Amino acid sequence: MKITVIGTGSMGSAFVRQLTGAGHQVSVTARDPSKAQQLAAAHPGARAVPAAGAAEGADAVVLATGYGDAASGLRAAGAGAGTVVIDITNPLTADYMGLTIGHGTSAAEEIAKAVPGAEVVKAFNTVFAQVLAEGPDFGQGRQVDVFVASDSERAKQTARAIAESLGFNVVDAGPLKNARYLEPVAGLNIYLGYGAGQGTAIAPVWIRKN
């Protein structure tokens, strides 16, 4: 697939690494073009592109910015009607120990409102960057789960295909409003991983019958 990654932080970098390794055509953009260029140079097969129009022609856009920069980043990239946006953001407080919005809405829903027509799917927000960068093997034959929630079946299937191409197990989490549940799961992961000192190996794995 042709995939544009917006953002060069820990999650953006992990996505570029894994997506290029899986054979996808990856474009990366950021507010600081030099960071996008450095990241692309480190991963053969990726290319740095200007922010303007970065979403055009992409099969999917991975939104790997902070929540506060999400809408402006998508608008700058030209995301709009028909753009599949994989929203990995979490609306975290400054100390990363809480969420700034929730209960009656979610970051994903607010992003969808801010970019009308975009087909937003919540995914990967419960996966630590370190886990994403190293791969999905949870040990003992268990894989880390990626939850996908969207009102667009096309967006959901696109996110599923990308996650599975990286080796993750995918759990259908229903409509986009269920991001209201997924974002607090990410907050709990962060508390367990950092606040409680259990490390980034903490990752959601659901016990399922075959």
Write down the overall mean pLDDT.
93
**Strand arrangement, largest sheet?**
3-2-1-4-5-6-9-10
Q: Quick one: CATH superfamily?
A: NAD(P)-binding Rossmann-like Domain
- What percent of the residues sit in helical stretches (DSSP H or I)? 25-40%
| Uncertain parts | none
Radius of gyration: 16 Å
What's the CATH topology name?
Answer: Rossmann fold
Tally the helices: what do you get? Answer: 7
Tell me about the biggest sheet?
8 strands, mixed
Q: Into which percentage range does the β-strand content fall? A: 15-25%
The H-and-E topology, N to C, reads as EHEHEEHEHEHEEEHEH
Terminal-residue CA separation: 30 Å
Structural class: alpha/beta
Oligomer: single chain
The number of distinct structural domains comes to 1
What is the top-level CATH class? Alpha Beta
Q: Any guess at the CATH architecture?
A: 3-Layer(aba) Sandwich
User: What general outline do the C-alpha atoms trace?
Assistant: globular
Q: Quick one: how many beta strands?
A: 10
